[in-house]
Amino acid sequence: MKLRELAARLGCELCGDGEGEIVGVAPIEQAGPGDVTFLANPRYATHLATTRAGAVILAPGQEAPVPCLVSDNPYLAFARAVTLLRPPPRPAPGVHPSAQVDPSAVLGVDVHVGALAVIGAGVRVGARSALHPHVVLYEGVVVGEDCVIHSGVQVREGCRLGSRVVVQNGAVIGGDGFGFARDREGRYHKFPQVGIVVVEDDVEIGALTAVDRAALGVTRIGRGTKLDNLVQVGHSVTIGEDTVIAGQVGIAGSTRIGNRVTLAGQVGVAGHLTIEDGVIATAQTGIPGLVEKGSVVSGSPAIENRAWLKSTAVFARLPELQKRLRELERRVESLLGRPPSA
Amino acid sequence: MKLRELAARLGCELCGDGEGEIVGVAPIEQAGPGDVTFLANPRYATHLATTRAGAVILAPGQEAPVPCLVSDNPYLAFARAVTLLRPPPRPAPGVHPSAQVDPSAVLGVDVHVGALAVIGAGVRVGARSALHPHVVLYEGVVVGEDCVIHSGVQVREGCRLGSRVVVQNGAVIGGDGFGFARDREGRYHKFPQVGIVVVEDDVEIGALTAVDRAALGVTRIGRGTKLDNLVQVGHSVTIGEDTVIAGQVGIAGSTRIGNRVTLAGQVGVAGHLTIEDGVIATAQTGIPGLVEKGSVVSGSPAIENRAWLKSTAVFARLPELQKRLRELERRVESLLGRPPSA
Amino acid sequence: MKLRELAARLGCELCGDGEGEIVGVAPIEQAGPGDVTFLANPRYATHLATTRAGAVILAPGQEAPVPCLVSDNPYLAFARAVTLLRPPPRPAPGVHPSAQVDPSAVLGVDVHVGALAVIGAGVRVGARSALHPHVVLYEGVVVGEDCVIHSGVQVREGCRLGSRVVVQNGAVIGGDGFGFARDREGRYHKFPQVGIVVVEDDVEIGALTAVDRAALGVTRIGRGTKLDNLVQVGHSVTIGEDTVIAGQVGIAGSTRIGNRVTLAGQVGVAGHLTIEDGVIATAQTGIPGLVEKGSVVSGSPAIENRAWLKSTAVFARLPELQKRLRELERRVESLLGRPPSA
Predict the structure, then answer these.
(1) Tens of pLDDT along B191-201?
(2) I need a surface site. Which of A172, A222, C95, C153 has the fewest CB within 10 A?
(3) What is the 3-state secondary structure (H, E, C) of chain A?
(4) Interface test with C, best of B178, B191, B254, B284 (most C CBs within 10 A)
């Protein structure tokens, strides 16, 4: 595709020669003359002067020695360029003869069911959805349109996925929540987990992530929310829309997470609490209680991020502070001629 | 079922009209006239006045505007009600024609083997156990009676599960432990992991949890213990009875965990140490050494919980403390007319 | 095997009678007369006096009441003894009739493909590699020679594994990285992940570990590196050679980890940064920035390990320090006859 055409399709302003042929995409330090690249993270700005790319997508006000596509959101524009130039492989419609599809299952038009997949009784799969090999859908599962479910994913009985949902390999949707009632002798008895999971439209769920079914009712992942790998979502949790949950985050049961929340890697959230809209928790934060709208929190237990940054700076100097305190005590004692009162 | 009959079967005292027909179960704020619900967590007590439930299971001394079932352990009584009213689906006995069962495997009466499951040589499965689709049992695995093994579970060679064991989807039992010997050049050589895993009766293992086989000997999960999702149990670990391990906990190799221990979410336990009976570790605790019987510990590295709570409260005020220390130094200096000795 | 022969094959000096028959391996406290055992961890030295083993592998200068094999590296020598005496089961060459192998796939000599495995178009598998049941290789995957890929492993399109690579059950190699571009309305759009994963020779990858494919280019795991279970490796990460990553570690995207690095359990590493050669991070460390060659770091955020140890010791005494500070303020105030300036 000519650079001029790419600019038009991305809605970017073109600076420089638009006649170059763009055939690929690459990171800025590896891009060659046929590649378009981008600059969004200032860490990589030093590569701008020396890039050999055919074109760079960048923000207004930046300059490069090669043709540029100017965008208010270079990362988004580049994501669209990648989608145009390297469209993801799409498995052909049809059911592999080795797949086990229950006769009562209803598959929409142009659905792909890969080798050795298992589709249970009463399952419904919407048009154009792709179920890769070794996907297992228990009975009564509903999958919307244009979904991509990768190999090794397990979806348990009665769970419902919206449209354009992407599930990476090995994720488990609808496993039993962790509910046990303790008796007088200290033994645990299973609380049957009879709820389901509802995954709304445009959600992505990472590899080896577990979203537990509700004890009663629904565990819900809201529209447009993205979960990374190895995330744990406990039973009866509700997550809002356009929220981002990074790798290895754990969310205990019955907690409510709002819209446009960001939980960075390895964050832990206790059960039965609320994280309001727009909250950001930095990596490894441990959240024991309510976090109010728009807060940025850090630490375990979580406190406001700027306070945490200051406290951690002092933490590293605690031995010195302790020494200074001892010295002061000694000096005051010498002034007063006696030890401090116990 | 009439409420009166439900009360009798649960062994609860009935307060109010026992003639209502109970057909379902629901959380207190969603329950309707045909539902029984419960109140165990005081957080939800405010819903008691307005519930529309057909009946509420609650502790002695509590009151509700609807018929009540009184129990010393409302959560346990409700768990039993759910089991009565919403019995979990039980797959029909029989072996799916697409399953690959080695001729030398021995299956007990009324065992269910789902589609595309793989049962290796010499495997024994006890009566009434259900192996869902895509379960893989390597050679020599032993599974007791009345077990439920969900789809995507892998059990490696020679591992043994007791009776009434439940394994959620995607868990791996008996993967190689992480054992490598380093040579003079700094290269690692695999230490073959030739032990097994023994899972005792009434254990539940969560989705995507990994329990490693012992290097030599046995990794053991004791009777009645419950492991949540995404837990890591290292090689040669021993876990006692009636212990609860929450999501994303990691236990390094050769550690011994006692009976009735509770490890909350994301706790990490170092290797070659002992956690004695009855210990509680709060979420994200990092345990570097012995924890004595009955202790409650928190923090990383773990200290006694109450001390940790106090220290974390001071931690949040460290910048202020540092400022006060500086001010004191200034004032003492002005009193003494000279700076403190270095 | 006679002990004398075992000594010769391990290159160990023999002390005592070499005529005993050694048929097994066992931990020091469980070993019997036919077993060889070892002593490497001083924690277990107390068992030396009472061991009933047929022989003990130990370091020079140690003594035991039974025949000994002396080695500079007892753990490595014992690992070799285990390999000799308990060789791991090797599945027989051949393709199970239930496996789904694309006609365009190329399998080397003596490859084993287990039941219900799925081998995609254009896949190449090197000589003697074993693919256990339920392995899924997407199209274009390359696997080297003498690899062992356990059941339930998923390898995504185009990813490449070297020779002698071991992958434990349920691991996912090449799932999409977590890349989304946010638009003006706060919605996230998928950045297609068009790179691959390259796993070099002699790597081991633990159960249920996820290694994401690069957004562009390559996510690389270097030669001889070992990853434990439930590890998350983000897109475009590069890990060097002979590095050890313990269970539940998370490494965010585009980070570079050097050679001979050790990350202990549950460590978290932020994105776009460098961990230089030889770094050690203790368990639960959170790394927000560059870590220089050979450093030992701890804490979240990470600081130098010895400083962290000292600070954590003071942390546990913070309430006492706060009290002493208050007392000093009171005393200084009484000296000065007025409160400190605000």
Answers:
(1) 999 999 999 99
(2) C95
(3) CEHHHHHHHHCCEEECCCCCECCEECCCCCCCCCEEEECCCHHHHHHCCCCCCCEEEECCCCCCCCCEEECCCHHHHHHHHHHHHCCCCCCCCEECCCCEECCCCEECCCCEECCCCEECCCCEECCCCEECCCCEECCCCEECCCCEECCCCEECCCCEECCCCEECCCCEEEECCCCEEECCCCCEEECCCCCEEEECCCCEECCCCEEECCCCCEEEECCCCEECCCCEECCCCEECCCCEECCCCEECCCCEECCCCEECCCCEECCCCEECCCCEECCCCEECCCECCCCEEECCCCEEHHHHHHHHHHHCCHHHHHHHHHHHHHHHHHHHCCCCCC
(4) B178
